[in-house]
Amino acid sequence: MNKLLPSTITLAQCLPILCLSILRLPILCLSILCLSGSTEFQRILNAEEVEQTKKPNVLFIAIDDLRPELGCYGSSIAKSPNIDRFADSAVTFTHAYCQQAVCNPSRASLMTGLRPDTIKVWDLQTDFRKTTPDAVTLTQQFMNHGYHAVGIGKIFHNNIQDPLSWSEPKLNVDDYPFDPDAVYRGKDNVAWLENRKSELIAKNDRRRIDQFGKWYLKHVATENVDIPDDAYFDGAQTTVAINKMKTLATDEQPFFMAVGYYRPHLPFNVPKRYWDMYDRQSIPLAENRFQPKNAPIMSVNTAREIRGYTDFKNNPRPHEGSFTDKQSRLLKHGYLASVSYIDAQVGRLLTMLKEHDLDRNTIVVLWGDHGWKLGEHNSWCKMTNYEIDTRVPLIVRTPGAVENGKKCDRLVEFVDVYPSLCELAGIPSRDELEGLSFAPLLENRKLPWKTSVFSQFLRDGIWIAPDGVAYMGRCIRTLNHRYVEWSPKDGTDVVARELYDLESDPQENNNIAEQAEHGGLIQRLAKQLHAESISPER
To answer: What amino acid positions are annotated as catalytic residues?
Structure first.
């Protein structure tokens, strides 16, 4: 694994960063000359020294299945006023990418700063502690340098809590299951769940009982009930998180507070008032409701996740047929309502920071773990290497950053988050990390930057390709192209390739890998993919 990614940054490209630091020296020197010899000078120096020793707090907001469907990312339909206001005071990365478009590997990669091939996490089940026991997570690194780290909700994947990553046991919300993404409140839905529980108890089937003794059952894909925000987990956990931060704010020790939201993950169960924010019939459907032309069969999603709900269990897979317009609008309506619900909860967190004067010394990071299809490519959910699944929202506010309020179009990826937060907080990073700190971009978003990012996806288990073979697809995304190589899971031979011209085909509707005129480009991209992304041990 090349740990000096990206190889394209040269000394000349680093000079703007160095110059920025040098330019600040005259100001400091002038201040010292003006104040030297006075007691006032010593007083100011002492005050500055104290201020510099105060490490910034970190509020780390993870949102499950959130694609960049937000007003601040140019969405014409999503109502996200709180996140949009936050973006107005932060740096919004418009070209941020996850390492794998599925929850567990994406989150494990971000939290360890290591790529999926390095930690050997490519699926929903694998605990990175089993494959990489000595990994030092992001929060561990902060704890090692004086921080109190607290988490609530979905930070790592559902059943992976990783006690080593927290200063105290992860916070829980009473009366909610361990994995609360399928909580229902509607009378009909609750009745169905109770009947299902009775059936399973009669069979002595306890597989769906979690560590808190709660049942985890899924029914329909949407729920629209007139109830308060805190009736669902995401609202309730926001209240718990706010109360915890109030307590942490009274301590001298800086805090790292991680809040992981479940929505807009399925099922789309949110209070009625968020559904009422949208007119379903005016919601536009996806423009490209068809499979990419000339794409290999393993490249597309089976929509297995949405077909796991009772009201969609008989729907076709993407290569077999399409959802109806009525079904599509229902699902898109539910997704948008869920986004607005989470937006309201984020607003509550940010309001608390401001009201308690914490915003002036708190780094806030908001991210979605991967994208999500809403009918694009005739499919739903995540789990492909396409732009719609790998591109993610990433918004970072550092108090006093020059570029706050601006959009940054430089390529960044999730392995960059770990070293970036270390640099922003003024704590050491780690040599084994495989990302690049984007902290300089917060001071100058136009700096020359890396020209490629990497993602991958394992088509295995219940997510297996329709031909029944398990494949690994590895992807390089450059400024103008996406290139993917598919190999059998346990092999190295490339059995299929994809190439998309992002300038002429931004929706990635036409695979041009087999066109002879692109042979030279494919060779260059393949060489770069293997040199900078693929582990030599594979």
So the answer is: 103, 157
